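Researcher: Please predict.
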Amino acid sequence: MTLSEFLKNKRRKLNLTQQQLAGEAGVGLRFIRDSEQGKTTLRMDIVNQVLKLFGQELGPQPINREKALCKTPALMWSFYSGVMWSDCPAYSDLNHFFIGKGINSGV
């Protein structure tokens, strides 16, 4: 679940408007709207201020290695070749893909 989904779901469960949540958390309405719309550049201290209302806080989370590995090589390959991938092959297929192109992927 994303942060935006979490906040929206919690707010709706409590039957709060975005304005009410902003008031309860002591943050601006714009911040709540941006958070729920998935803005990727939010101040962590303010996010924690809102999450505190729900007994939560930001913290390290394990990443999905396949997704993380798919993004970086795909972006690097598309940058150098102009090729955009619509789907990322599984991690085990990445090395095969790059070797097939005559490239040492390092994976």
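Model: Helices lie at 3-13, 18-25, 29-36, 44-51, 65-81, 91-100.
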